[in-house]
Amino acid sequence: MRKLISFMHISLDGYVAGPNGEINWVKVDEEIFDYVGKRISEGDTALYGRATYQMMEDYWPTAAEKPNPTKHTIEHSKWYSKVHKVVLSKTMNPDNFREGCLSNTEIISDNLVDRINNIKQQAGSEILLFGSPSAAHSLIQLNLIDGYWLFVNPIILGRGIPLFTDINDKIKLNLLNTHQFTSGVTELNYTVDR
C-alpha cells in the first residue's frame, strides 16, 4: 500500500505559516532544492489543499518558460506538469478554472477516508502532501497520514498556523533519518508507528 507523506516547512515552535498564512520566513536554497528534488522526482502523486493548489497552478505549469529559469525551476515544472494532482476542496468548481488547468487533476470534496484510501491502494510511489495546513489538519484527524517529512527552520514564530492542532489521540512516530543543511534548516523524516 502506498504511503501518504506530509511535506512541510515548519518553525522550531511548530508553525507552518504565520498568523496570516505568510511563509516568508522559510529558508530555501539550491542545497535544499537539490535534496528535496531527488525525492519529489520519484513521486507520481501530489496532494494539495485548494489554496496551495491554486498557488502552484498559477506558477509551475509555465515556470520553465520564464526568462532565466533555474535548474530546479525547469525540473520541478516538468515534474509538476506530469504528476497526478489530488486536490482536497469543498468549494472548487472545475468550471471556474482556465482551460487545461485541471488536466491530470482529481478533486476530492467528500468521502475523504474512502477516496484517500482508494488512492493509497493504487499502484505507484508515495503520495506527497505539499504544504496545505488545512488539508493536513483534516488528514491528521482522520489518521490518514503515514509519515512526516519536516524541514525545521531555525526560527521561532511565537504565533501562526500550527501543523498539529486538535489532535484526537497521540501519534507515535519513528525517526527514519535527519539531515542538516548549511542554512540551519534540519530535515526530520518520520513514519507513523501504527
UniProtKB/TrEMBL annotation:
What GO biological process terms are annotated to this protein in UniProt? riboflavin biosynthetic process
Q: Per its UniProt record, what Gene3D superfamilies does this chain match?
A: Dihydrofolate Reductase, subunit A (3.40.430.10)
* GO molecular function annotations of the record: 5-amino-6-(5-phosphoribosylamino)uracil reductase activity
Residue ranges annotated as transmembrane are none
Q: Which InterPro entries match?
A: DHFR-like_dom_sf, RibDG_C, Riboflavin_Biosynth_HTPR
Per the database record, which ranges form the Bacterial bifunctional deaminase-reductase C-terminal domain?
Answer: 2-185
Name-wise, this protein is Dihydrofolate reductase
